[in-house]
Amino acid sequence: MLLLRLVLVTFVLGSFCAILNSQSNTHETLQGRSDSTQEIWYSKTADDIAKSNHAVKEETLRQDIRVIKAAQPTLYKMLSQEGLRTSDSRMITSAAWSEFRKDHPNDKLEEDKFVKFAAEEFGILAVTSKPDGADIEVDARPWTDKTNAENGVRVGTRHVRVSMPGYEDSEGNSEVKKGKRTLFHADLKAKPR
């Protein structure tokens, strides 16, 4: 047992040192993340798209990653001029990529068209509640995160529903504008006992 712990501690320390070394030698991207972390984000988004749309081919997603890597600096610059943060650019990129693949499972993704699509058709929707930790549905589609959360969504009127056990649901519409942050806040009321 002691030997197993020693091996585990050595592995963890070695991994930590390798991470520190790679971070000091790795070019930082516009997202403020190392290249390897950025690769993980691309892969996770591609996996999410593949899980939600089985018609998308793996090769298509690999090509998408190359196009999106090239598009990110331009998209970030456009969105930052609107006052959005680098993390907002990532959320909008994920949402636009997912939506594009939903409608066009294996069509070629072109850099200029993707930048235009993402910048003009998506914004950020932030959903907060008091108390926080409530479930979120936007246009009848549940979000993975609970309040207080934000995500890239299509522009236009979005129907938001916030629910939490022991509280009355709160719902309403929110008008999401291109390249802007929109807030939907719900003050949840406790159900009568």
How would you explain this protein's 3D organization?
The structure is a single chain. Helix content is 49%, strand content 22%. The chain has two domains: 34-121; 123-187, Immunoglobulin-like. The chain contains five helices and seven strands; from the N terminus they run H-H-H-H-H-E-E-E-E-E-E-E. Mean pLDDT is 85; it is low at 1-33. The chain is α+β, with helices and mostly antiparallel strands. The chain has a four-stranded antiparallel β-sheet, with no helix packed on it. Strands 4-1-7 form a three-stranded mixed β-sheet.
Q: Which helices and strands, and how do they pair?
A:
Blueprint: H1 2-25, H2 35-52, H3 58-81, H4 86-103, H5 111-121, E1 122-130, E2 135-138, E3 141-142, E4 149-154, E5 156-163, E6 170-176, E7 181-187
Parallel strand pairs: 1-7
Antiparallel strand pairs: 1-4, 2-3, 2-5, 5-6
